[in-house]
């Protein structure tokens, strides 16, 4: 419903035309390759695939397409990850549609557009302290998987998984792996 309403509102802008809408993250790149949009508005948490992963693929496979992340998940870690994935902008959904239309125009003009409050929070939060492998292990632990399950899934030894979990727990200042997962998610690191 939100996607459809947003598309209708943007189509009312004289200089904009919505060329496609997709319901799942794993449809983004294929649809963009087919329709060749100037800009893709992506959310972060989508069924099938994250908008951040799709943004990175768009940067590689369709570099002419700019990416603007529009999400309810205004977390500093997500902002950093979006910028690393090649997004040209990051807005939180609670603003008026006129601001979104203006942001689209600015991104198309070559500017970066970032929600000011989130930019300030990201600067004060500092970088993600977790390594990629620690993030992989925490992501595999999300559903309460055992160390043996995580080791099998990631092709690591159980001792290595324990080491990564211990490091992640220490870096997040938590007491166990599930608290570490929650802290990493809350900060947008996963």
Automatic annotation (TrEMBL):
It comes from the Bacteria. Residues 123-188 form the HTH luxR-type domain. The modification 4-aspartylphosphate is found at residue 43. PROSITE patterns: HTH_LUXR_1, HTH_LUXR_2, RESPONSE_REGULATORY. Keywords: DNA-binding, Phosphoprotein. Residues 1-108 form the Response regulatory domain. CDD domains: LuxR_C_like. One of its GO terms (molecular function) is DNA binding. This is DNA-binding response regulator. It comes from Streptomyces kronopolitis.
């Amino acid at each position: 419903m939100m996607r459809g309403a947003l598309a209708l509102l943007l189509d009312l802008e004289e200089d904009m035309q919505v060329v496609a809408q997709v319901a799942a993250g794993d449809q983004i790149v294929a649809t963009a390759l087919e329709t060749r949009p100037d800009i893709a508005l992506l959310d972060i948490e989508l069924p099938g695939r994250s908008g951040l992963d799709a943004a990175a693929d768009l940067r590689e496979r369709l570099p002419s397409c700019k990416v603007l992340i529009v999400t309810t998940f205004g977390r500093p870690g997500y902002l950093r990850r979006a910028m690393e994935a090649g997004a040209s902008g990051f807005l939180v959904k609670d603003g008026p549609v006129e601001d979104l239309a203006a942001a689209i125009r600015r991104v198309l003009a070559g500017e970066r557009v970032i929600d000011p409050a989130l930019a300030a929070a990201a600067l004060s939060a500092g970088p993600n302290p977790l390594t990629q492998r620690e993030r992989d292990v925490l992501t595999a632990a999300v559903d309460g998987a055992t160390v043996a399950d995580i080791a099998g899934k990631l092709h690591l030894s159980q001792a290595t998984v324990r080491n990564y979990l211990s490091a992640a727990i220490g870096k997040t200042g938590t007491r166990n792996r599930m608290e570490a997962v929650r802290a990493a998610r809350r900060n947008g690191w996963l």
